[in-house]
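ligand=pyridoxal-5'-phosphate
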Amino acid sequence: MSRPNSLTEKLSKKDKDFLFHPNTNLIAHHDSGPFILDRGEGIYVYDTDGNKYIEGMAGLWCNALGHGNQELADAAMEQFKKFPYGNLFASKSHEPAIRLAEKLVELSPFDKAKVFFGSSGSDANDTQIKLFWYINNALGKTKRKKFISRVQAYHGVTLATSSLTGLPTTHGNFDLPQNHFSHVMSPHYFMNKHEGESEESFVERLGQDLENHINKQDPETIAAMFAEPLMGAGGVIIPPPNYFETIQPILDKYEIPLIDDEVVCGFGRTGNVWGAETFGMKPISITIAKALSSSYMPISSVIISDDCYDIIAKKSNELGIFGHGYTYSGHPVACAVAIKTLEIYERDNILDHVNKVSPTFTERLKKCDKFDLVGNTRGIGLIGAMEFVSNKDSNLGFEKKGIAGKIFTDHAQDNGLIVRAIGDIIAFCPPLIITDSQINNMFDIVEDSLKKTMDDLTKRGFLK
Ligand SMILES: Cc1ncc(COP(=O)(O)O)c(C=O)c1O
């Protein structure tokens, strides 16, 4: 690693003086300072001192095609020059939004659907909440206000979606979750199983837990359930086999629709276009963002079936307007970049590529099981995680949560790899263009960093 140069030092000072960082320990930040990235090329990023890193998280699970994609830059520039801003309010439209909507409906599992654009996963899920309130009001089901999601779910951080998110950090001190939101058990077999419980029995228990929860809440008051196909930001929690097949009939029995949050899984991350295909979900509506534009521009969408859309349309006619939308709904530059992104996914067979390199990814990840620190590894497609334990026999976590995760990510970063610690779970979500040899490089660094982390934890008395 090169030592900080004067630019890094100058920027660090200004960062601490002026920037308010999201999702950051703000006091610790003032001590340790920022990690300032400067440029990227493919799966690699470089800091302001010229150090090179593998971007093992594709940014925030989003930079699917990696950095420096000239075609995406050109698509943006062309649109910037031609028509940099247009909106979709009051029947105005433009070609990029129309073409992108058509493509997304074609890719969706729905025969007929409509696409509503936003700028982030959070605002799209917020739109979903409003749409299902609107639909239920239009149908006279005025008691159906509540949403169910799961502990460890991540659906965003707007006022409403923070409540859907099932992570304490998005609730604490914000006076959340709000009343209409509740959480059922997460399908995290490794942490939530009872002693000796099989995956099959665990799934049965999850079904029972959901049904009890629905009855406790009163089924007539529930608008919908939100679920990610696999739970990303909660710790890459991959549902056990038959999880969705078990909960879907329960939802159907109580007429509770399933909203599919594909913000992380959509566009190939799990080896299919949709995580819903990988895990057998039957959604009524889908949320997408992130890989939709390979994160080159902020854009998100709700894809909702025409059955739902028609109800909304009829009501909007009675009310005179459908009164929801954003200044940047269908931003033309974002749409143009998304169209190009989807074109590249198809032309370059990104899905085939993911399925070709995924065995290297999952096998190398599985090999990390041999370390005493690693209680569990799990992966599918090009997303995975390893979970640290203080004692492998009991699978007990660390008393001081997050220390092992932080030590590991610091070592990985020193060794040239960026990954994310979610407490003591380490997440991996590299750009979808990563090659076999790059995956091997990435896991060579992981193994070396695991050794160093174990040494540190042993020295500090956290590992016996
Ligand atoms: C599954 C899921 N839904 C929604 C969101 C929120 O997206 P954004 O950060 O773009 O608001 C995220 C963000 O990571 C996510 O992982």
